[in-house]
Amino acid sequence: MLEGKKVAILGDRDGIPGPAIEECIKATAADIVFSTTECFV
Known about the structure:
The chain is α+β, with helices and mostly antiparallel strands. The chain has one domain (6-38). It has one helix at residues 18-25, and strands at residues 6-12, 31-38. It has a two-stranded parallel sheet. Helix 1 (18-25) links the parallel strand 1 (6-12) and strand 2. It is elongated, with a radius of gyration of 11 Å. The model has no long low-confidence stretch (mean pLDDT 94).
């Protein structure tokens, strides 16, 4: 489903951080172009 797609990851400091989402996406054929963890207040 994600083959050939580009992915931007926005993690949440109080929820799921970007690196955790990134590890899940690495198992697919998607291309990670941006990954960060932010604090949404």
